[in-house]
Amino acid sequence: MDLVTLRRTTACILAAAVYEIYPEVEYLGGGVTPVGFFYDFCFAHPIQISVIEEKVRAIIQERRPIKILEMVPFSAREYLKSREFFARAEAVLEDSTVELVQIGKYIDFCPGPHLKNTFELGAFRLQLEPLAEKVRISGTCHWSKGQHKQFLKLLANRISPEKKGEMLGFWIEDIWLKRGLEARDNLIYFLKKEWFEGALEVATLQGREEHALLSEKIVAEVYSRSRFETEILMSFFDKLPTDWNSCLQRIGKTLTILGFDHSFSCDERGGHYFVEDELSVSHSLVHVEKRDRIGVSRIDIFVCAEVETILSQMLEKHLVDGRV
What we know:
The protein has helices at residues 3-21, 49-61, 73-82, 86-90, 145-157, 161-167, 178-195, 242-257, 307-316, and strands spanning 26-32, 37-42, 67-71, 98-103, 106-109, 123-130, 135-142, 171-172, 175-176, 200-201, 218-226, 229-239, 263-267, 270-276, 282-292, 299-306. It has 324 residues and is of the alpha+beta class. The chain has 2 domains: 3-157, Threonyl-trna Synthetase, Chain A, domain 2 (Threonyl-tRNA Synthetase, Chain A, domain 2), CATH 3.30.980.10; 164-316, 2-Layer Sandwich (BirA Bifunctional Protein, domain 2), CATH 3.30.930. The strands form 4 sheets. Strands 10-11-12-16-15-14-13 form a 7-stranded mixed beta sheet. A hairpin with a 2-residue loop joins strand 11 and strand 12. Helix 6 (161-167) crosses helix 9. The chain is globular, with a radius of gyration of 23 Å.
């Protein structure tokens, strides 16, 4: 199990604790954050976070099993409504089956994976965040008290990539400065040199959707959705299945040259190249996708690299100081 799974389940354990203390509250849903978890509620009266923390600890010590109930969407919605979780019923998506998580009497729509038992949660910390029309309870968690203590220390001392970029004179808020533009342009130049060989380089209004209109086998472009959303897009048409592995190796080699200790997660349709920051938060740098061609043993391959994400993670890992 990873930290994302722990954080996802901790949000549900938190909601279960609130349900047992304040059963009349409205549950709006929760999930994971880059550093922890959250759950949103509508309370009709003031609450005490210390009371909720004690209840979470009790649920952990009771070693409650965490059950996953699979249902079709209609049954899931009706079941949640019967338990008066009306807002959660509205959140159920249309799919073949959906997962409800059950902890004691509390039931929620929260697709997994999840922990098997509440006792797997080793340590946590909660904080109250009153918002305009709701109350958010957020927090951090880890597998043990020692790991949680170390995590909180790292969190307190961490300088975010956004702040580090400002300190280095790369940007101010959402405005690029000269040094940042040079670093971004150098990164784009490097990626193009590594990946664009043999490609028809284009500039489109719709990005990858227009690549198929061309008769070229390889189409590539630098596509900007907004000032801070620049993507390297590549389309490989009518390729052999063996070209898929060659493409993956090429991308992995490039990320290694940049200094990343990366991982790759994939299924039959594609995957992501991830790196973890010092807080064990995963960031997707490159997304790859393959599509089978109908009637022939050929495939199309699509690559999308997030330029600003790559640059931010280079800052996070001290791999860039204005030069790429």
